[in-house]
Amino acid sequence: MTPAARLQAAIEVLDLVVASARDDGPPADALVTRYFKQRRYAGSKDRRAVRELVFRAIRAVGERPADGRAAMLALAADDAELRALFGEPRGPEPLCDGDAAAARSLLPPWLVAELSPLVGEEEWSALLERAPLDLRVNVARTDRETMVGQFPGAEATPISPWGIRLPADTRVDDHPSFAEGLVEVQDEGSQLIAFACEPKSGERLLDLCAGAGGKSLALAAAAPRSTILATDSNRARLAKLPPRAARAQAMIETRLLNPPRELDELAEWRGSADLVLIDAPCSGSGTWRRNPEGRWRLTPERLDRLITVQERLIDIGTEMVRPGGRLVYAVCSLLSREGSGQIQRLFERRSGWISEETPIAAGRSDGGGRLLTPGHDGTDGFFVARLRRPC
Length: 391
Known about the structure:
Radius of gyration: 22 Å
CATH topology of the largest domain: Rossmann fold
Helix content: 25-40%
Oligomer: single chain
Number of helices: 16
Number of domains: 3
Shape: globular
């Protein structure tokens, strides 16, 4: 592919990303892969160059643009080499007076007021930097020192005692340690959410929003003789957990929930869980390093809906915790209403619950919990709070 053809391909991919962000479809990475599966003639250098252009444009534009051309014009505004490719053979249409470039910005302007006060403007650029590749060691079957020796260039993660960090382009899915269930791909921040739970063998642990089960697997590794129930309302995501659990040799029961009947479907757990983990659906603003097009998916209306869902899940979770038991609430978000604001509202609805310190040796205190951010801690951004039910 010529440079102009690569630019045109990037615009076509961006059109797909814009539509997917609008319609809550697949992520940009998946769309890039799908695009090139249909274009086998493109070589590895072509695919790499197009992908780089796509993600450069996504990072440059904070709000969802009108289309891929508008996003690329924003990138080309200060790149003469890109501008020169418009109108070239097999490239995009020539530049014209009617072209409207998308506005360049790190964040959607409406979202700035929603950020935690701890996330100052000096940290914004870190929200879009390339994330490292972290693995969680299955400490029920091996140890971190052994696994560091299995991967060239690996080092221990600085905060999580379970993690190792690899060079960004390391292949993991065909490594024997991954195939044997000795490691799982999991960002250090995500590991720390499970670490904050401090699970103990013999306990009854409920992972209320388990998704594909990354944190359930971490709980099982830390407390292998516990009883773990992983639930979710998304059948496709939850279906990914059983094969992962089998590979890790972890005993985890799964259960598909059907809103709004969760309390009935969890009747035997009501008031009996030693721990309830609520890793709630959220804006994903803490994971924009991996999914920068997440900024294009979020709207004020969607944020309001997510906050309502989070409150409902917290109320369900509090019903499951036994007297003296604990609830851990977490979101991969840097927005106050999703984090500290939810804990404040919980205390207003249910008196007597006790806020506890987490064992995380990083982050900053944020209301009733702890906030870790890419700029301050080098992890994905997340808020986590641990609460205890009164006896």
